[in-house]
Write a structure and sequence with these properties.
- The protein is α+β, with helices and mostly antiparallel strands and 182 residues long.
- It has a domain of 110 residues.
- Helix content is 18%, strand content 32%.
- The chain is built from 3 helices and 10 strands.
- Strands 1, 2, 5, 6 and 10 form a 5-stranded antiparallel β-sheet that branches. Strands 3-4-9-8-7 form a 5-stranded antiparallel β-sheet, with no helix packed on it.
- A hairpin with a 6-residue loop joins β7 and β8.
- It is elongated and about 50 Å long.
């Protein structure tokens, strides 16, 4: 009986010791893209329209983005990129002198949609049929159907292990961080 009791005590001590010891913490794995939402490269299926936003003349088109929820709009991070054929990608907002006039392409985010617009500085001439109000006033730069867009949404509430804010990262850095194919 004494031998059985000793054996049971030895087993209890062995089990308790093996349960309380912790191993070394392994290295952190890649952050991955489990909760990150991204689109393929796509053109806008919608026609470009001329409009004004807050008194500023713009050419606008939109992208359908069904994953753009109210929660992402309120607490997430939304990034949009564009490219022209093999040139790019460029993060929005993007300012250039394309077409001989300074212009900016930017995005406004809404529930299920991304409104991408182009503003040509110093003009509200949508076409050449609109007379220039000042000499040399340019016509607004067109917004071709051939531009391709990709969006990346990072839902809010995710812990971000990063040394640089996402909006300051290059397209390649964001893709590497979240394992998004280029």
């Amino acid at each position: 009986m004494r031998k059985t009791t000793m054996l049971i005590l030895a087993l209890i001590v062995l089990i308790q010791c093996s349960c309380t010891k912790e191993g070394k913490t392994g290295p952190a794995g890649p952050e991955g893209s489990a909760n990150v939402i991204y689109s393929p490269w796509q053109t806008s299926p919608h026609n470009s329209r001329d409009t004004t936003i807050d008194g500023t003349c713009v050419k606008i088109r939109h992208l359908d983005a069904p994953a753009l929820t109210d929660s992402i709009l309120k607490t997430g991070i939304m990034l949009t990129y564009f490219r022209v054929s093999s040139i790019g990608p460029y993060a929005l907002p993007y300012t250039s002198d394309a077409g001989g006039a300074t212009n900016t392409i930017a995005a406004i985010y809404g529930l299920g949609k991304i409104y991408v617009y182009r503003h040509t500085f110093g003009t509200c001439r949508f076409t050449s049929s609109v007379p220039a109000s000042t000499p040399g006033q340019p016509v607004m730069i067109s917004f071709p159907q051939s531009l391709e867009y990709r969006y990346v949404f990072v839902p809010g509430g995710q812990a971000l292990r990063t040394s640089k804010p996402l909006k300051q990262m290059s397209y390649k850095e964001v893709c590497a961080k979240y394992n998004i194919p280029l």
